[in-house]
């Protein structure tokens, strides 16, 4: 059996009045780049690539450069194919769009391989440590009109309480858009709303230099924050290390990093306690296996980053299933040495409606898909509803 067809789909959903903000950007829409790879005997694999930028360049990389290289190739060699495609684009695509395109294709290849062998991807990756994963809510963004006053703190606290009421025992909030004192007040408001027993994570989306992050970190230490995500820009390895050395809070990062080579530098630089490769960004499963091995050798817990559609969420769940407790204990504790799954709670019909399967929170956990390949069924009607032309 050989790969016979590669198709890209750009999906786009305007958010209108539900537009929200992080420290870096407004989100007036949700979008996803999906790829569908079909074999000569009709097996279909899906993948998603790129999470942070426009989908059109990723689609162009696939359509114009990479797809012609894989049509007529055997479907059952995803790792070999990855190496060959990376070698082809190394001189101009070591990070960014090309690796996102490669990620989408690699995920689709593993989906096909699993379906052909009658196995879920987590089995092909070597065996699951768990069949359900504690989920954390990613929410508490900034509204489009920012206001550091008490009205917005009340709304923030109400949102945090709602996440706890709906079953989450861990919550991640955004910081970094406002001055340190105002963001400290936001963190305090959320901690007071959720009480002492709910784990609180904060994400700055690299809003600070090292000195600013350390100053913010002193505030966070008052409110029992369980990790400080992307305190500084991804290129600032020594800044990461300075923040990590100065604070008692674990430092997380890696969603904007690519391939084994980027993560090698992150680990050798002693930048993070928790690595967050995004499967749709870092190179897909073939590359993630190497990143996970490097993380393990550095005693770094891997907790893949999740954003995007239901395809991205399913993709991450298979990888999360095979992360060993790091370090091992007989009673692994979420965040401390056991992975948790990021469950974005911002509006996104591509996450909620795209798949026939529904990812429902049960006892605060999401189940790892057990069907063949990714174990998902993409709803063609929803694809057609949100599809736009490149
Ligand atoms: Ca993040």
Instruction: Name the CATH class of the largest domain.
Output: Alpha Beta
Q: Which of globular, elongated, flat, extended, rod-shaped describes the shape?
A: globular
- Given the structure, what is the number of helices? 14
The helix-and-strand class reads alpha/beta
User: Cα-atom Rg, whole angstroms?
Assistant: 20 Å
**Fraction in helix:** 40-55%
Commentary on this structure:
This protein is of the alpha/beta class and about 400 residues long. It has two domains: about 5-120 and about 380-390, Enolase-like, N-terminal domain (Enolase-like, domain 1); about 125-365, TIM Barrel, CATH 3.20.20. It contains 14 helices and 16 strands. It has helices spanning about 55-70, 80-90, 95-115, 120-125, 150-165, 180-195, 210-220, 235-245, 260-270, 280, 285-295, 310-320, 350, 380-385, and strands spanning about 5-15, 20, 25, 30-40, 45-50, 130-140, 140-145, 170-175, 200-205, 225-230, 250-255, 275, 300, 340-345, 365, 385-390. The strands form three sheets. Strands 6, 8, 9, 10, 11, 12, 13, 14 and 15 form a nine-stranded mixed β-sheet that branches. Strand 9 (about 200-205), helix 7 and strand 10 form a beta-alpha-beta unit. Helix 3 (about 95-115) crosses helix 11 and helix 5 runs parallel beside helix 6 (about 180-195). The two termini are about 30 Å apart. The site of calcium ion has 5 residues, from loops.
């Amino acid at each position: 059996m050989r790969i016979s067809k590669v198709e890209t789909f750009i999906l786009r959903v305007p958010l209108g009045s539900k537009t929200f903000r992080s420290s870096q950007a407004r989100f007036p829409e949700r979008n996803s780049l999906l790829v569908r790879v079909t074999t000569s005997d009709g097996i279909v694999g899906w993948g998603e690539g790129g999470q942070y930028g426009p989908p059109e360049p990723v689609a162009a990389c696939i359509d114009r450069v990479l797809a012609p290289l894989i049509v007529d190739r055997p479907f059952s060699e995803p790792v070999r194919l990855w190496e060959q495609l990376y070698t082809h684009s190394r001189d101009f695509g070591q990070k960014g769009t090309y690796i996102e395109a490669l990620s989408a294709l690699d995920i689709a290849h593993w989906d096909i391989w699993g379906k052909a062998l009658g196995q879920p991807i987590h089995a092909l990756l070597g065996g699951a440590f768990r069949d359900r994963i504690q989920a954390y809510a990613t929410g508490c963004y900034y509204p489009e009109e920012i206001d550091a006053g008490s009205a917005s703190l009340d709304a923030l606290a109400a949102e945090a309480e709602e996440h706890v009421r709906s079953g989450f025992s861990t919550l991640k909030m955004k910081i970094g858009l406002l001055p340190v004192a105002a963001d400290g007040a936001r963190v305090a408001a959320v901690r007071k709303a959720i009480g002492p027993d709910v784990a609180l994570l904060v994400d700055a989306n690299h809003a600070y230099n090292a000195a600013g992050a350390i100053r913010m970190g002193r505030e966070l230490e008052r409110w029992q924050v369980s990790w400080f995500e992307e305190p500084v820009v991804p290129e600032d390895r020594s800044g990461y290390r300075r923040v990590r050395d100065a604070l008692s809070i674990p430092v997380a990062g890696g969603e904007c990093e690519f391939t084994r080579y980027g993560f090698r530098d992150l680990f050798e630089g002693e930048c993070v306690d928790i690595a967050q490769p995004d499967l749709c960004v870092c190179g897909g499963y073939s590359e993630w296996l190497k990143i996970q091995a490097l993380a393990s050798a550095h005693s770094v817990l891997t907790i893949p980053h999740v954003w995007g559609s239901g395809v991205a969420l399913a993709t991450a769940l298979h990888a999360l299933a095979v992360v060993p407790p790091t370090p091992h204990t007989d009673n692994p504790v979420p965040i401390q040495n056991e992975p948790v799954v990021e469950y974005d709670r911002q509006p996104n019909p591509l996450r909620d409606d795209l798949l026939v399967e529904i990812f429902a929170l049960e006892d605060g956990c999401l189940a790892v898909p057990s069907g063949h390949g990714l174990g998902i069924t993409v709803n063609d009607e929803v694809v057609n509803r949100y599809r736009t032309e490149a």
